[in-house]
């Protein structure tokens, strides 16, 4: 199973329903669009980070130590808080975002909010919820495919290239990530993308 297929299998309609409820009754289309953009942004940022030896090493170590993919055994339980997680770092969404996005976090939230129509504060909350799931997906793929540090980098690079061919938001996200967090590209997002142009990372059934 490739990374895109794994994401599609985990982000179920039931999960979108639950996330919408936790966001205060946001409509499912908006939640779905924001979720897709968040997942694309986080994986794009991880690919960018992993393009350097230090970044790849840090990500590889984090996956080996704290993210083995077991969080995916009961994603709904994790999201609702009904599942107990022994390793707090595995579910520390805020900490993950700090490492992955750094000073780009605020800009990423603004960008995704404009792309999806979801309020920025709710976008930040949703991103914090989804970050551990993304790390779990990477950890599961790394473990099942026996990937070393180089293999992990290749996985993320391949995902980014695949998304650029099928998901129109990836080019915008890549441009934002390469802009050193100056935020200038965010001003163009609203004019360049409407909901009708949002490329889905997963297909709603």
Q: How would you concisely characterize the structure shown here?
A:
The protein is built from 11 helices and no strands.
Give a verbal description of the structure.
By secondary structure, the chain is mainly α. Helices cover 69% and strands 0% of the residues. It has 11 helices and no strands. It has helices at 3-10, 13-22, 28-49, 53-66, 75-80, 93-101, 105-116, 120-145, 149-166, 169-177, 186-192. Helix 3 (28-49) crosses helix 9 and helix 4 crosses helix 9. The chain starts with a helix and ends in a 13-residue tail after the last helix.
Secondary-structure content class:
mainly alpha
* Number of beta strands: 0
Low-pLDDT windows of residues: 190-199
Separation, N- and C-terminal Cα atoms: 19 Å
Shape: globular
The helix content is 55-70%
Note the run of SSEs as H and E.
HHHHHHHHHHH
Number of helical elements = 11
Mean pLDDT: 85
* Rg over CA atoms: 16 Å
User: Biggest sheet, in brief?
Assistant: none
Oligomer, anyone?
single chain
Proportion of β residues?
under 5%
